[in-house]
Amino acid sequence: MISTLPRFGGADVLTSADVPEPIAAAHEVVIHVHAAGVNRADILQREGHYPPPAGAPAWPGLEVSGTVVSVGGGVTQWAVGDAVCALLAGGGYAQRVCVHEDLVLPMPVGLSHEGAGGLVEAACTVWSTFDAADARAGQTLLVEGGSGGVGHIAVQLGIAMGMRVLTTARGPQRVQRCEEWGATGIDYAREDVMARVRAEGGADVILDVLGAGALDDHLRMLRTGGTLAVIGLQKGVRGELDLGRLLALRARIVGTTLRSRPHEDKARIVRGVRDHVWPLVPERVRPVVHATYPLERAGDAHRALESGKVFGKVVLIPPP
Ligand SMILES: NC(=O)c1ccc[n+]([C@@H]2O[C@H](COP(=O)([O-])OP(=O)(O)OC[C@H]3O[C@@H](n4cnc5c(N)ncnc54)[C@H](OP(=O)(O)O)[C@@H]3O)[C@@H](O)[C@H]2O)c1
Prior knowledge:
The chain is of the alpha/beta class. It has two domains: 2-119 and 287-317, Quinone Oxidoreductase, Chain A, domain 1; 124-255, Rossmann fold. The chain has ten helices and 15 strands. The protein has helices at 40-46, 113-117, 120-133, 151-160, 172-179, 193-199, 215-221, 243-249, 263-277, 298-306, and strands at residues 2-4, 15-17, 28-38, 63-71, 83-87, 96-100, 104-106, 140-143, 164-169, 184-187, 203-208, 222-230, 252-255, 289-294, 313-317. Strands 3, 4, 5, 6, 7, 14 and 15 form a seven-stranded mixed sheet that branches. β11, α7 and β12 form a beta-alpha-beta unit. α3 (120-133) crosses α9. It is globular. NADP nicotinamide-adenine-dinucleotide phosphate binds at residues 39-41, 125, 144-145, 147-151, 168-170, 174, 188, 209-210, 231-232, 234, 256-258, 305, 308.
């Protein structure tokens, strides 16, 4: 069973359907899915704004955890029965997925399937963005949206890697939850974020899920030599850039995406996450599962994410 999109639109369009069992080709594994993470990108795909890359299944889902049930020829890293999680280009809203062995990770010790199924996409996004921004210990990192699926992993990983982390969230409770990890929280609904960040001395790296509408403010929050790393466009695509400020700061703006990257890039990122992030899970980096929904209620899971009340991740549980 899968949860698919016969047409684009609101959460109602998500519909259960049956498709043939996937078969592992050479260097692929088939995973019986125990948990599938829901991402904001899935909502964009549902609305028709984010098509899956060529070769990916048409139905949504960028990450799963589960058990390996078959392996294709030449697979050396995994065996039937292994508990794993995986980064997908699509198709995770399913009982079974097929994925290249390079994009599979072992289940982190001490984490449930629900936690692991909602961790891989965020961990790979944050790790690759830190890499693109050259983020490192001793720096000040601003995470926009520390309450989000990506943001709550960015806050925890930044702190675990020795950065000083400032982060925004909406409302005192969500801010407080971010502060419990050791971040300095800023309530973006009640405070002047730019003034607060500047009062804190500015940021060396900004992990930006907002985009155009925050571009000018973000440049004003950067320290000299800083990097604005844009990964999301919740506040628009086109903005006006003060190049004079960019030059004076000797600053960089980098954009990065994960889903459409070539296989070799993704495989390198997954290796980096396995080597550098997985040892921190779950003691230093622990995914927050806000709610789980049965796969056949994927529409309700999307509604929950759209409500703005989710802290961390929403995860789908397929039938056994
Ligand atoms: N480039 C990539 O490879 C990549 C990969 C993954 C995700 N993304 C993008 O990253 C973004 C976040 O994804 P997600 O799955 O983490 O979504 P999510 O769980 O829905 O999180 C969205 C976050 O944005 C915050 N936010 C919304 N408006 C804000 C504002 N005005 N100021 C500060 N924060 C604000 C929310 O804070 P509150 O909930 O507290 O309001 C929440 O923390 C999306 O745009 C997604 O498309 C990009």
